[in-house]
Amino acid sequence: xxxxxxxxxxxxxxxxxxxxxxxxxxxxxxxxxxxxxxxxxxxxxxxxxxxxxxxxxxxxxxxxxxxxxxxxxxxxxxxxxxxxxxxxxxxxxxxxxxxxxxxxxxxxxxxxxxxxxxxxxxxxxxxxxxxxxxxxxxxxxxxxxxxxxxxxxxxxxxxxxxxxxxxx
Length: 168
Known about the structure:
By secondary structure, the protein is an alpha+beta fold. It has helices at about 25, 80-90, 140-145, 155-165; strands spanning about 10, 20-25, 35-45, 50-55, 65, 70, 100-105, 110-120, 135. The protein has a single domain (about 10-165), classed as Nucleoside Triphosphate Pyrophosphohydrolase. The protein contains 4 helices and 9 strands. The protein is globular, with a radius of gyration of 15 Å.
């Protein structure tokens, strides 16, 4: 398996208004056009946070633990449509979600407008073959893993941001 570098993604301004389109390859190729993504943090009722393990074939951060659900908004989709699709595709559940915030994330290769959501879910989670599994983590396990190359830098930054703003 590998990512489709020809997949079309919308380009947006920092408010989320669509201003163009580009391929996934162009968006991840270092020129950093801003493109929208959705993230869902799934907590159980004990306060543990579900993280997915990114498969080794991913073009960005292979083998690291990351947000339960993360994916691009496809061209022609809105944020809500993309979130619902990605949740079903990646972890096989349907659940109510709550919008928390949006922010711009920039790495050496890409720039994303991240729409962050949260859900409380106690049912079975069925990670797809797009992922290399997943599990619930306690807050202490996450804190112990931060800065050790186990978690994606994006997740670590977002986790700190969520804590600072009182979302978790």
